[in-house]
Amino acid sequence: MQGLSVGDLKDIQGRFLAVLAVVLLVGLGIVVPRPLWHDGPAVRTERFQQILVLSNPIHTDIAIPVDSDLLIRFAFLRTIGLDLDNPNLRYLIFGWGGRSFYTETRIWADLKAGPVLKSFALDRSVIHAELGGDIPLDASAVTVVDIDAEGLERLKQFILTSFDRSDSGPIPLPGSNYGPNDAFFEAQGYFNALMGCNTWTAAALRQAGLTSGLWTSLPWMLRMSLRLHNDDKRFVARHALP
Fold it and tell me: For residues 57 and 19, which has the higher predicted lDDT (pLDDT)?
């Protein structure tokens, strides 16, 4: 049997180094905390609010339980026809992502090459707002997170400032919605594969007082980093499955 040539060995070595680099990048993204340090030990409080992180294989959303303050702060959702007075409304759900992929891929069958290629380059961003009813807290796609009142306020502000605005307020994208209970809006920033929807979710959770990994581009990376860095802190991911 003929042995491997020098070219074959170099090719194998190159592939091994590429895989090793990816593994190291992913590992460091999870293990290295962000922020790197805290001003002091957190003080536990019995007053907390549960928010939810909802995930599928590639994307995460944040669900905030509805109360009067939330409905006032996000009252502009009525302008695009969302029924904030629906008696079955329990959560407002927010996600951030690339315009092409997010708005054109309603289900996996809608997947096209163009939006995918844009997601690996640079795409304008959008915010997806959705009305949610009862969500089972023990579902595998749900992570329950406890935050205090200050963390909740910072989270709301972070989401509000993620909307791009005109003089009349947030800018909707009519006709891009998936159904009667959701809407898309122009968002701040640009989307790419390195800084995408899950890094936005991580940034939002850091505003709420959590520590995430340095770079969490996929939902499982974000969930692992939340478990790793928040077990003994004030804000604990109480239900986080792989």
Answer: 57
Using CB atoms within 10 Å of the CB of residue 163, give its burial: 0 to 12 exposed, 13 to 18 middle, 19+ buried: buried
Residue 30 makes CB contacts below 8 A (sequence gap 6+) with: 213, 216, 221, 224, 225, 228
Answer yes or no: is pLDDT of 91 > 70: yes
d(CA 97, CA 159): 13
Q: How far is CA 58 from CA 25, 113, 198, 233, in A?
A: 18, 16, 8, 27
Residue 112, CA distances (Å) to 100, 159, 161, 242 in order: 10, 29, 30, 28
> pLDDT for 31-76, tens place per residue?
556 565 554 444 445 568 899 999 998 899 999 999 999 999 999 9
**Are the C-beta atoms of 119 and 192 separated by less than 8 Å?**
yes
- Residue that has been written with the tokens 């795409």 in this structure: 123
pTM score over 0.85: no
pLDDT at 84: 98
SS3 of the chain: helix, strand, coil, percent, to 5: 40, 25, 40
φ, ψ (nearest 5 deg) of residue 162: -80, -15
Cis amide prior to 180 (ω within 30 degrees): no
pLDDT tens-digit readout, 189-200: 998 877 889 999
Between CA 156 and CA 64 the distance in angstroms is 9
Whole-number Å distance between alpha carbons of 32 and 26: 10
